[in-house]
From TrEMBL, chain A:
InterPro entries to which the protein is assigned, alphabetical: LD_cluster3 (IPR041197)
Domain of life: Bacteria
Organism of provenance: Chitinophaga sancti
Protein name as it appears in the record: Uncharacterized protein
One Pfam family, short name: LD_cluster3
TrEMBL record, chain B:
Protein known as: TIR domain-containing protein
Keyword DNA damage annotated: no
A Pfam family assignment: TIR_2
Residue ranges of every copy of the TIR domain listed in the record: 131-275
The entry's keywords: Receptor
Any one GO BP annotation for this protein: signal transduction
Highest taxon listed in the record's lineage: Bacteria
Length: 200, 390
């Protein structure tokens, strides 16, 4: 197995807002942009860094597809976290990933997810976090992430709308307008995460 | 939020603007595209311009060397928007256009007769011509065949080239290769998501794959049925009882009202515009940013190809494609072929995103490379390629 210790670690927080939940997320969500951004992030980042995320059933199959298409031995470059609370609903995708970390089940969904987040964000030293689309969970993940990794680069992809846009608009950080205006995500992530590698 | 086809009109005043709009409106109506799908943007309403929608910019040159809207022009060049420089006489092209456009093919607009050919370049720039408007409808015969036929007819009337996925149940069988090929070349997929549809027709992996190929997917969700969790990347269109004739939806003779059909067509038009822009934008912008990082100068031509000069003066042509790259002449517009042939380039490259394409075709493409003057080139790793080959 290749030594991948030196690779930078990127945390991905992404989901598709649900129209039946809080509309403040769904109403600004650009589903195509969320999809393109996740796909582009996986394509650009996986060969060079480690990507860590908590498997959302609409996001994981996209990453799985990109991973398979990259066709190199990059299994060590992705780490998927899954709470055993959802064990019954686990999709076949999980089997494709070699590094799936199953976190303990708690009595409620809320506790189970909180526990998964706690582990996922404590067990690695992250260089950056990318926020795409999403709902309350993204805001919560941002808060835990910021506390544990205060120096890491924060990238809320505002053009995908939803929670990522709320983060972009409300955080007191000098985000580039490119996060709001650009939809060419491969170029965007390359610029922010690879070209500026020394910064992260 | 409706995505529209944008036509930007900037630069200097021009007496043909009214006629260009009139002709564009007429041709799009003939193609079945409704007038509200077009958006004209000028200096005054430039804030309405959206980077995630298809766009063609007309830059009107001037004889006196005073050029308007230069800031806007530069921001569009930076966005890799298609720009068509227009002058009265091509012989004085450089005097009549700002320097930023000197390496872009210009068009002559000196009398009424020039308007029609310009309009066809614009329509091709927006990929609005019929051959390039591909749609795929997938449905379960026992549950929604009347609706499928209704949609087929209406989409045909609206200038789409429709493929009806009538293959019967393929229990557990993966998608056949020719269906994938169809799919990769499609702008929008419409799934009639009746209760028994997903499990019998599409596996979740197939849905994910279509999504990963950046095809726009609209799911018409039957009343009482909910969107599968894994399918949330598609755009949902929930149907109500009242969308159906006689408020009846639970049998195979169910049909949609005229009003609902019209709304679906309009939704598909918007989704197509959005998905097309995203596929093109990603590949073109990736190329330009990659070239800029390694210090290479390239220019996007109005016919949607990229031109680069090598230090020895020879030219390279790159043609970005969004579907499956075929041989050069298969899927390209006449104007593009004419312009590219005129260049007498050293090599023509078809630029593609291999993440979108299945392994088998990539092997086929590498094999074709040995026989054709046209070569297929992956956008992934373009920088390294440019460093070594230009």
């Amino acid at each position: 197995m290749a030594n991948t210790q030196h690779l930078s670690k990127i945390f991905l927080s992404a989901s598709i807002p649900d129209p039946e939940r809080n509309r403040i997320y769904y109403d600004t969500a650009d589903i195509m942009a969320i999809r393109d951004a996740v796909r582009a992030l996986a394509t650009v980042i996986i060969p060079h860094s480690k990507l860590v995320w908590g498997g959302h059933p609409s996001i994981t199959p996209l990453i799985r597809y990109v991973l398979q298409r990259l066709g190199r031995n990059v299994q060590d470059h992705v780490i998927l976290y899954q709470s055993l609370f959802f064990e019954k609903g686990f999709i076949d995708d999980n089997k494709v990933f070699e590094h799936v970390i199953y976190t303990e089940r708690y009595p409620t969904i809320k506790e189970s997810i909180a526990h998964m987040r706690e582990r996922m964000l404590s067990e690695h030293r992250f260089d950056a976090a990318v926020f795409i689309g999403g709902m309350e969970g993204i805001i919560e993940e941002y808060e835990i992430f910021k506390e544990k990794h205060p120096k890491a680069l924060i990238i809320p992809v505002a053009s995908t709308g939803a929670a990522a846009r709320i983060l972009y608009e409300n955080l007191d950080e000098p985000f580039g307008v490119i996060l709001k205006n650009s939809y060419a995500y491969m170029a965007l992530f390359r610029e922010l995460l690879l070209d500026n590698h020394n910064n992260i | 939020m409706r995505t529209k086809y944008q036509i930007l009109l900037i630069g200097n005043e021009n007496s043909f603007i009214g006629q260009i709009k009139e002709s564009l409106n007429r041709h799009t109506a003939e193609l079945g595209v409704s007038g509200d799908s077009l958006l004209y943007i000028e200096q005054a309403n430039f804030s309405e311009y959206k980077a995630n929608a298809p766009a063609v910019c007309l830059y009107f040159g001037s004889n006196d060397g005073m050029f308007g809207d230069l800031e806007l022009l530069r921001s569009l060049i930076n966005d890799a928007t298609l720009i068509i420089p227009l002058v009265v006489d091509l012989k004085s092209f450089k005097q009549c256009t700002p320097e930023e456009l000197h390496k872009v093919n210009g068009y002559e607009l000196s009398n009424e007769k020039d308007v029609e050919s310009l309009v066809s370049v614009i329509l091709e720039g927006l990929s609005l011509l019929r051959l390039s408007r591909r749609l795929f409808i997938s449905y379960k015969r026992e549950e929604s065949s009347i609706v499928a036929i209704q949609l087929f007819e209406q989409f045909e009337k609206n200038g789409f080239d429709v493929f009806l996925d009538t293959h019967c149940v393929r229990p557990g069988e993966p998608f056949q290769d020719e269906l994938w090929q169809r799919l990769a070349d499609t702008d929008v997929v419409v799934l009639l998501n009746t209760p028994g549809f997903v499990n019998s027709h599409w596996t979740m992996q197939e849905l994910a794959q279509a999504n990963a190929m950046s095809v726009g997917i609209l799911q018409l969700i039957w009343p009482g049925h909910s969107l599968e969790l894994e399918a949330k990347l598609s755009i949902p269109y929930p149907l109500q009882d009242s969308d159906f004739g006689n408020n009846t939806y639970a049998n195979k003779d169910a049909y949609l009202t005229k009003n609902t059909i019209d709304q679906i067509v309009s939704e598909v038009e918007s989704l197509r515009a959005r998905s097309l822009a995203s596929r093109q934008d990603n590949i073109i912008t990736e190329f330009f940013k990659g070239a800029a990082r390694v210090g290479k100068d390239a220019n996007l031509q109005p016919e949607k190809f990229i031109l680069m000069n090598k230090p020895d003066g020879k030219e390279l042509v790159f043609i970005p494609t969004v579907g499956v790259p075929q041989s050069f002449t298969y899927d390209q517009s006449e104007e593009l072929i004419k312009q590219v042939k005129k260049r007498n380039a050293e090599t023509i490259f078809i630029l593609y995103d291999h993440i979108n394409i299945r392994e088998k075709w990539i092997k086929h493409l590498s094999w074709l490379d040995n026989y054709l003057p046209v070569k297929a080139l992956k956008i992934e790793g373009i920088e390294q390629w440019l460093i070594h080959n230009t």
